[in-house]
From TrEMBL:
<keyword id="KW-0275">Fatty acid biosynthesis</keyword>
<protein>
    <recommendedName>
        <fullName>Biotin carboxyl carrier protein of acetyl-CoA carboxylase</fullName>
    </recommendedName>
</protein>
<dbReference type="GO" id="GO:0009317">
    <property type="term" value="C:acetyl-CoA carboxylase complex"/>
</dbReference>
<dbReference type="InterPro" id="IPR001249">
    <property type="entry name" value="AcCoA_biotinCC"/>
</dbReference>
<keyword id="KW-0443">Lipid metabolism</keyword>
<comment type="function">
    <text>This protein is a component of the acetyl coenzyme A carboxylase complex; first, biotin carboxylase catalyzes the carboxylation of the carrier protein and then the transcarboxylase transfers the carboxyl group to form malonyl-CoA.</text>
</comment>
<dbReference type="InterPro" id="IPR050709">
    <property type="entry name" value="Biotin_Carboxyl_Carrier/Decarb"/>
</dbReference>
<dbReference type="InterPro" id="IPR000089">
    <property type="entry name" value="Biotin_lipoyl"/>
</dbReference>
<keyword id="KW-0444">Lipid biosynthesis</keyword>
<keyword id="KW-0092">Biotin</keyword>
<comment type="pathway">
    <text>Lipid metabolism; fatty acid biosynthesis.</text>
</comment>
<dbReference type="InterPro" id="IPR011053">
    <property type="entry name" value="Single_hybrid_motif"/>
</dbReference>
<dbReference type="GO" id="GO:0003989">
    <property type="term" value="F:acetyl-CoA carboxylase activity"/>
</dbReference>
<keyword id="KW-0276">Fatty acid metabolism</keyword>
<dbReference type="InterPro" id="IPR001882">
    <property type="entry name" value="Biotin_BS"/>
</dbReference>
<feature type="domain" description="Lipoyl-binding">
    <location>
        <begin position="72"/>
        <end position="148"/>
    </location>
</feature>
<dbReference type="Pfam" id="PF00364">
    <property type="entry name" value="Biotin_lipoyl"/>
</dbReference>
């Protein structure tokens, strides 16, 4: 992502009511957020009274391969919710990279509206990558893991 695009995004956040914006392009992710200053949102009588808006910019480059292994089968999240990689806090994860799994074996649990939904393996194989983070939110369609 070039600097002119990043500058445009910063200007957009500064002129809008949003407080956070995350944009990913290829292997670069830009996260722009601002904190509300005391009195922000109140009309000021002069430019000297205007609040300064702090807008840190975070730019990161992904270290993971850009394309999954052609032979791997992705395991997608079927619903939005909070991902759990273990049956209970403090217990061992259902699976880890390198584990061999059977079709239908529970790989994760997604908690949505206090309902715990088990996510099973779509086929037998070996876990080559776990892409999701325990306790993190996932969207429907997100890749959780890959099986070969």
């Amino acid at each position: 992502m070039d600097l002119s695009k990043i500058k445009t995004l910063i200007d957009f956040v500064g002129q809008s009511n949003i407080t956070e914006l995350t944009v990913t392009e290829k292997e670069t992710t830009v996260r722009i957020f601002r904190t509300r200053s005391p009195g922000e949102g109140v009309a000021s009588s002069s430019p000297a009274d205007a609040a300064v808006i702090e807008m840190p910019v975070v730019v990161s480059t992904a270290t993971e391969p850009s394309a999954p292994d052609a032979a791997s089968i992705p395991v997608h999240a079927p619903i939005f919710g909070v991902l759990h990689t273990a049956p209970a806090p403090g217990e061992a994860a259902f699976v880890k990279p390198g584990d061999t799994v059977e079709a239908g074996q529970t790989l994760f649990i997604i908690e949505a509206m206090k309902v715990f939904n088990p996510i099973g393996a779509p086929r037998a194989g070996r876990i080559v990558r776990i892409a999701a983070i325990d306790g993190g939110e996932v969207e429907a369609g997100d890749i959780l893991a890959e099986i070969v």
